Records
---
Amino acid sequence: MEAILAVTIPFFALVLLGWFAARAYWLPESAIPGLNAYVLYFALPCMLFRFGSSLPLGRLADPVLLAIYLVAALAIIALTIAVTVRRAGRDDGVALRDAAFGALVAAFPNAGFMGVPLLVALLGDAAAGPVIGAILVDLVVTSTICIAVAQSHSHRSRANDERSMLTAAALSLRGALTNPLPWAIALGAVFAATSRELPGPLAQIVRMLGDSAAPVALFTIGTVLWRAGQHAHTRTPVAQYLPVALIKLFVHPALVFAIGLAVRALGAPLSPFGLMVLTLTAALPSASNVSLLAERYGGDNGRIARIIMASTVLAFVTFSAIAWLFGVGKTD
């Protein structure tokens, strides 16, 4: 456990420092979008490009790992919506739009800003492949489905259009494809497949930007969490956000691990290391940018911000415990 905490404490401490810096107004709120843009459009794409260009394609897009993670994500989306959506004749629960965004934070870990650097620090560069595969699934599939469900609800309230779900899905997918992260991964994979290398000065620029990704991304998570709390428009009862955070931290990784064991029992080529990395990816806290999506699409961003905050605070203990159960950091 000491070896795990030696890694996780600094990572979560940087998130806390970002939150405190924003709360103390040492970092102006107006600077937070710029900080987020630096990570999203410069630092993180360079880091993912470097990993993508150094790993074989089979490690970046292992079909067995992708299938396990996708099935688990779909199950978590369905489960979260089922247990949180408001039903006729009952006062508890939330509207379908908010249930869909709750499902998104339950199924979408912070694998980009936190997962890649954290798991590489814990397990070595080999961990990057499964995490990057999970990022692709979440950016292209998980977010598209959840936003489509949220948007289709609003479409149906205006007109009974059978194509509203497909329309919303197409708009969501277009948004996912404008995200620079999948393109950085794909470009890295092309360089790896063709054995190409960047020219020296450009490679140095990419290296410098990539090296800044982990600390700046973690600091940015803290600032985004503070900003989300400041812009929350509602006060959410604990019963409406804590269960979703617990689904994220406990049910999601447990489901990934269980599906992985079942797939391996059926004879699929699945390494214990790959399953461990994928389970630890699912055990990460919710992605912080979902609160921005909820705000953009008219969801209850106060509830989403509290789910993300609760999962981030609790993940320091839960993630470290799951890593310890896997034997991370133990020596024979």
---
Amino acid sequence: MIRLLFALVLIVSAAGAQAAVRIKDIADIKGLRENQIVGYGLVIGLNGTGDTLRNAPFTEQSLQSMLENMGINVRNEATSTNNPARPTTLRTRNVAAVMVTADLPPSIAPGERMDVTVSSLGDATSLLGGTLVMTSLRAADGAVYAVAQGAVTVAGYSVGGQAQNVSQGTPTAGRIPNGALVEREVQGSLHEMEFLVLELKNPDFVTATRILDAINRYAGGRYRAQIAFERDFRTIVLSKPRYIGPVRFLAEIGELTVEPDTPARVVINERTGTVVIGRDVRISTVAVTHGNLTVRVTEMPVVSQPAPFSKGQTVVVPQTIVEANEAGAQVAILSGVDLQRLVRGLNQIGLKPSGIIAILQAIKTAGALQADVIVQ
């Protein structure tokens, strides 16, 4: 298991060391991003799996407001001055209050459609078979950017009776494919940008320098000019030539390939026993041994009975057996000139993931692990 784990780490790291990636896969265009929108609505048509209106008063209030806006009177007529009109008590279980969320893509035009996610707010047990009533979706500025409506698609289910319940997935959340119609366009476009700025997804000085050199090398032959300069280790500013459009320009720049640099880092997750070692991790020469101590405690109570005619009482006498076993451990010398030798040295010890984690943390404490250790 350990050999397979570290062999997989070695294969992935070795493959990443030889492969170059496109610039558009490791950098984004500043200003071209998604915007989150959210709305509150009602899902109707449920088969008795909606909210209990007595336990979810906001669902009842929303239902009454929707019916009144459609011209349906849901209030009792006032009989006297001392007896004003009161709302009619509703007893339906076919309605559920939901929150509708979506990500508004950049440069999307009014009239286009996008997917939305619907999640229950009350005590509804399932949204299966429901239909979302027209719901306005707003952004952080309070403006309405889309309107959602349609049949909810639910992947999970929940069925059961009084003694047993069977469920799979999450039946109280679903999606509506192409369920939102865009009503407003997000301000800003590529043509309005004086400079185009690339933002690295994983900021690094070496990676930024390699991207800068690759772009200027390409631009020197294509445009006869140096068009890129670095602002910091995260952003690179591009000066677009006048005789080319921004879309074609970014398409050409995005297809350029570079080899991103990764920091020397070891990521440890003690809960799952996962260890990920970066390609550039180095270990100074150290001698490591790790012993496995197993302690077993067994309780074997003994029943003690009194002798005949002794007028004694039967008692339970505790009896504890403790066994300690420490397996023999070997001393291994680790010298991580490269990742392959480091993995080979760790495999020689033959430990479980918990042992590997303990050794790496101890080597870091000793100052021999030349990398950052991140414990999740």
---
Amino acid sequence: MVADITDVQSGGIKTETPDSAKKKKNFDHDGFWKDIIERFFYHLLNRALPELYEKADRTIPPRFLDKEFRDILNTADPEIHTSPHFADFVLEVPLINGDAEWVILHLEAQGPKGGNLAVRMRTYEALIFAHFQREPVALVIITHKRPANEPAYYSHKRFGTESVYRYNRLVLQELDDNELLASDNPIDLVLYAAKFALKTKKELQKFNFLRKIVGLLDERGWSIEDKRDLLLFIERIVNMKDEALITRYRKVLEQENKEGKAVYIPLLLRDSASKIREEGREEGIEQGIEQGKKDMAKGLLADGVPPDIIAKNSGLSLDTVKALMN
């Protein structure tokens, strides 16, 4: 594990000024969590809904019912059509017995001003049942602090008529850091990083945290692809902005590569993928990632990393890597 940097002055680290920080765009929490769910859905299911995880046919990817969900949101209520309400999924999860289960997955990443959560969840359940006669499994991921008096479920009672709707909740702030760090579930490392990002704004702490994550990934027995994508996601949510520290962090990754450890996608790729997403060209994200891999490979070649190691860990073919040497 690499030692933390604690002496800011001696390192000549340049910090952000208030004016430069204002120019930075707000982090896209919705986009981050959507990407995480699509990439590590079954790992998330294992953490949040273990009973469903055991019955799911994990050899088949879940089906994201985007069109169906937008259809049920085609109501006259303007509140249903505005953020944060589009930070949601309806997924069809295949089961081992050949059946399928529908899951409402709601991401509450908007902080204390996200509206009445219980009423919103009850509305989604009612709309899905009215349109498709399906009783969905519901999960809410609460990534920010909510109002202290907010109910954990929906209830209504009037003149002898009573309705109660309970749903699963994964509350980030209630998760134990030590348990997350000891877990062999990749999604738990993301949840650990998300907790860190909520409470830490100092750039030097972000830098040291990312160095710690690189060390933790080296110790895990996960696939190179999982490690690579996990670091990409964690870099995004930590959202380090100081250019001098970003440069130092990239040098840390370069040193890891020279030592024959896993080759990771650098922070630069996160920025290019985010830019593509912000510009609305979702179909271009894969091309951006591919180009980012090539840019990374060129840098590693320049640093003397053997082509076969780069190819093995970057997802590029050996011929592609060799072609970049010319």
---
Amino acid sequence: MCRLLAVVSTAPGGWRRRLVDAPRGLRQLSHEHPHGWGVAVHTPAGGWSVHRQARAAFQDDDFAVAAEGVGTVLLAHVRQGTVGAVATRNTHPFRRGRWVFMHNGTIESTAWMRDRHSATRLDEVEGQTDSEQLFAWLLSRLDAAGLTDAPCGADTDRVLTEALREARAARGGGAINVVLSDGCTVYAHRWGRTLFLREEAGAAVSVASEPEDCAADWREVAEGSLVRVDHAPTLRCAVLDGAMVSASR
């Protein structure tokens, strides 16, 4: 099991408060998830900057340095490895071109994906994790639809919704909490693990495996749901498939 955090913000800023200083930030959670960390930060002008290490974040000064990266989109992850060695190549987030991906959970069997990968995407897999294979499979679906290099739109929503429904129904699909982003749009899907969302008055939207603090505005994403968050032209959040859990629950 792992922990992840994604943030889309209207104003560029560093992420130390979220990653290092928060009571349940990823640095603190890395005591329980010590098998590597990754921080991906996106700026409209410069694209992605991705830093990964196969060390516990709480023991690694480089994690705090990476948390100072300034951008409008953040994807961050601490790993508790279940498949694959403790190695940088197995550390999330993974990047292919403009797409960055991270996963919380274990795919019990990857057999259902095996014949659905494109040869090109399968050749790109560098590590041993089920997570990286799932990323390759999702990119194969976008490639087949001609959407990999296109701005995210209704067709992208449809392909990812269908792909993730298929993954949920697959025998051996396992837990599929995933975040996928091209730097302009963030998709977050819940299946088999907890996932929470927080909207901050038009300033930021956060998605996390668990709330990093006691703020009352964290809401639970319902099981089987897919959420889309856009940075531009205005910050917006929509549930494409599924629902949010009622606040009274």
